[in-house]
Amino acid sequence: MEKIKKILRSAISWVKKNPQEAFFLGVILLIASVLRLYKISEYMTFLGDEGRDAIIVRRLLVEADLILIGPGTSIGNMYLGPLYYYMIAIPLLLANFSPVGPAVFIALLGVATVFGVYYVGREWFGKYAGLAASFLYSLSSVVIIYSRSSWNPNIMPAFALTAVYSLWRIWQRRQWKWLLLLGTSFAFMLQSHYLGLLLVPTIGLFWIITFFEIRKSKLEIKNFVKYSFLGLGIFVFLMSPLAIFDARHGWNNLSSIKKFFAERQETVSARPWNALPKFIPLSEKITTRLVTGKDEGAGGKVTLIVSLGVFWLTFFALKKRGQEVNKKALLLIFSWSGNLRPLLRVFLCGPISSYWCGTWVYK
């Protein structure tokens, strides 16, 4: 309770010191809330997947039928973990088993993600960047559409942002307890969609970088390894229901995952170089969906402008100003959005890739 009071006092103090910034942030969050919650019962998507989820979670609440697996994937004959089902259980109960309850919860999570984009953008690149990024993210048509209904991939942007920001706190601030949040958020990511595996190289890279940076301090190494194992333990615990189910059924799910990422399928391939010619068209496609409201003409222009802007920021602005923190933030972002996201764009298609990449487009 004391921590909550401390947070509230800190927030009130910040508002008093930054009234204009607080005002614009409030307006952005209000816009995001209205666009996601206005007549949500009429505009939300409720099809077969959503109906199945509501029935399964209702059985959990009414019959105490514990859930070991989550939704099945559209291709690959795989199953996700059950975290999403447990996550929407309380909203469904509070709404008297109406599917509007989970949809409202997802919408509120979407608003929280808008704030997260602002917060991370502000810390990394200043208040103007944070406000601009959150404003654009709050208005994105694709993001709004997928924030208005209860569907397992819709929670991924929030947890992807949390995971990468946790890496930042671990790498730059040596706050090892964030390893616990990293393990938690990555488990939620992976159980919202298996494309969360694409974050593994980034996590591994910055874990190794951090380890080598602190290797001369025995105390730091001890705490780092300790919390790394604790974070891994949380991750394993959250993934254990799916592992238990898979062990009971001959590891069919694990076999499907291996096949899914090893062979060319509809949405993913382990051989992205075979589709490199699609890089530019898919880059424009994602930008068109996220930024320009599906206006293809404007999407191509915005893609060019953003690309030139990133080039200028990276090779000229930072070199001139010498802002070391910004360089490190860009390194973290580019390890994901500048390395893995082009691969994602090349060998992925459809709204899931666009929605997941959204937070990084607006950085």
Short structural summary:
This protein is an all-alpha fold. Helices cover 75% and strands 0% of the residues.
Instruction: Give the terminus-to-terminus CA distance.
Output: 34 Å
Count of discrete alpha- or pi-helical segments spanning 4 or more residues: 18
Shape: globular
Report the radius of gyration as a whole number of Å.
21 Å
Largest β sheet strand count, sense and barrel closure = none
Instruction: Give the rounded overall mean pLDDT.
Output: 81
E-strand count: 0
**Percentage of residues assigned to helices:** over 70%
Order of helices and strands: HHHHHHHHHHHHHHHHHH
Instruction: Please state roughly what percent of the residues sit in beta strands, choosing from under 5%, 5-15%, 15-25%, 25-35%, 35-45% or over 45%.
Output: under 5%
Structural class: mainly alpha
List segments where confidence is low: pLDDT < 50 over at least 5 consecutive residues. Answer: 339-356
Number of domains: 1
Protein name: Glycosyltransferase RgtA/B/C/D-like domain-containing protein
Main location: membrane
Subcellular location: Cell membrane
GO molecular function: pentosyltransferase activity
Could you please describe the fold and organization of this structure?
It is built from 18 helices and no strands. It is an all-alpha fold and 363 residues long. The chain has one domain (2-248, 266-361). Helix 6 (100-125) runs parallel beside helix 9 (156-173) and helix 14 packs across helix 15. The longest helix is centred in the middle third of the chain and has 31 residues, at 218-248. The radius of gyration is 21 Å and the shape is globular. The two termini are 34 Å apart.
